[in-house]
């Protein structure tokens, strides 16, 4: 009898300890060991958040609120739900002449639109293998549709501006998944946008959705940047997106059940699951609250390319949903950027702790280390270096051979629209055999 009572006490104490740890876990713990971000690399985030907010404004020439800091004349295209016909969320294309960027911005989920839910529901676990990993099927279809529609426009803008401007894709929530997969398409077939260099392509996923497997998230960390505000639930919830939004009205219950379930899944098992989806790219974590301290504090930004422990823990907090709102992310990102600039100006008489060139080298080394870490942890399909550049099509080869420029090769193919469905089909064929081998239980590399 005493043995049974003792076992019961141990069980109760164990449950109490787990409950205490889960209830006291805060979002800042996820990035506690990460180094701080610099103002140079974080500078685009607040203005890109404002550009996403501008999509919600009915009339930018007579806005209901100020602070967008954009020129309405530079908005080349603005597409609503009526024009997208449910294939993608509303978006706009903006030419930022000040920062020399061409920006395609996509808004987040609209709770009142059935088409957004259909996009999320168009996925099953392990349904879509793409570029050596798994991705969300519905978000990939949306990205393909978006590039089929706008690839010619983006190519024309880049060529008209002397091939000097950068190409930036930014999205919030649902839109973040679309632009992340869109970026992978563009990076693998840059000739379809006029041969734009890889270093001129950037993607910013604000409050990112889990849309790709871990090997892809690490592989494209030098191009895709994810921004997470403190306790945001979406980057941490490995539950399929469709299950989350089916239960949107009972989200706290769902998060608690997911938290309980993940307790009994080991970290190694999570890493070995090739179908498990993750938030993409390099992570920027905005931290503004600390344990047992009320209110918001001056935010700080930490950055890393995590492999194990990549936002795996649900935070049971009253801020999990409010931290997902784009308006809060913009406010806290602006505060964090201003804080970083103020700190750097305080030491203007001495050289900065990290020189700009050294920071660029550090970013490259972090990416290489993350790739090697993924291989050492036996992450499925992980590679220890970036894949070789994909072979260009005949048009690109013609433009390279004989010293002809890109515009000459484009004149030969005038009137022929780039079909991104064909691009995706080529990538799918490339890895279809790998998918069959995976089902048979063999160990393969992409």
Automatic annotation (TrEMBL):
Keywords attached to this entry: Hydrolase
Biological process terms in GO annotation: lipid catabolic process
Composition-biased stretches (Polar residues): 406-417
Statement: the UniProt record of this protein carries the keyword Zinc-finger: no
Annotated ranges, domain Mono-/di-acylglycerol lipase N-terminal: 7-64
Fungal lipase-type domain: residues covered: 103-239
Listed name of the protein: Calmodulin-binding heat-shock protein
Gene source species: Lupinus luteus (European yellow lupine)
Upper classification of the organism: Eukaryota, Viridiplantae, Streptophyta, Embryophyta, Tracheophyta
């Amino acid at each position: 009898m005493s043995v049974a009572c003792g076992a019961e006490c141990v069980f109760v104490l164990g449950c109490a300890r787990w409950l205490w740890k889960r209830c006291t876990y805060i979002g800042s713990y996820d990035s506690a060991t990460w180094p701080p971000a610099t103002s140079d690399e974080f500078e685009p985030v607040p203005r890109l958040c404002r550009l996403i907010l501008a999509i919600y404004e009915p009339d930018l020439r007579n806005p209901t609120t100020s602070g967008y800091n954009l020129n309405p004349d530079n908005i080349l295209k603005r597409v609503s739900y009526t024009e997208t016909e449910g294939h993608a969320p509303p978006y706009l294309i903006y030419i930022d002449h000040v920062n020399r960027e061409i920006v395609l911005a996509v808004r987040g989920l609209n709770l009142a639109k059935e088409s957004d839910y259909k996009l999320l529901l168009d996925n099953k676990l392990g349904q879509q293998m793409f570029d050596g990993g798994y991705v969300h099927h519905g978000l990939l279809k949306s990205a393909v549709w978006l590039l089929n529609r706008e690839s010619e426009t983006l190519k024309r803008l880049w060529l008209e501006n002397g091939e000097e401007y950068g190409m930036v894709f930014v999205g919030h929530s649902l839109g973040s998944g679309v632009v992340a997969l869109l970026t992978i398409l563009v990076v693998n077939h840059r000739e379809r946008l006029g041969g734009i260099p890889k270093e001129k392509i950037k993607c910013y996923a604000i409050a990112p959705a889990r849309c790709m497997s871990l090997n892809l998230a690490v592989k494209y960390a030098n191009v895709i940047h994810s921004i997470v505000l403190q306790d945001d639930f979406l980057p941490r919830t490995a539950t399929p997106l469709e299950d989350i939004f089916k239960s949107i009205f009972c989200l706290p219950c769902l998060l608690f059940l997911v938290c309980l379930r993940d307790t009994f899944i080991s970290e190694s098992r999570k890493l070995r699951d090739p179908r498990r989806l993750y938030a993409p790219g390099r992570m920027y974590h905005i931290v503004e609250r600390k344990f047992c301290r009320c209110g918001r504090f001056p935010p700080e930004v930490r950055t890393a390319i995590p492999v194990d422990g990549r936002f795996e823990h649900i935070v049971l907090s009253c801020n999990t949903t409010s931290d997902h709102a784009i308006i809060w992310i913009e406010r806290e990102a602006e505060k964090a950027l201003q804080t970083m600039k103020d700190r750097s100006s305080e030491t203007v008489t001495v050289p900065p702790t990290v020189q700009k060139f050294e920071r660029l080298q550090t970013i490259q080394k972090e990416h290489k280390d993350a790739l090697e870490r993924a291989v050492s942890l036996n992450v499925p399909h992980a590679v220890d270096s970036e894949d070789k550049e994909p072979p260009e099509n005949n048009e690109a080869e013609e433009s390279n051979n004989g010293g002809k420029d890109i515009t000459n090769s484009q004149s030969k193919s005038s009137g022929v629209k780039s079909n991104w469905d064909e691009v995706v089909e080529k990538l799918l064929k490339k890895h279809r055999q790998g998918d069959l081998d995976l089902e048979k239980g063999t160990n393969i590399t992409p």
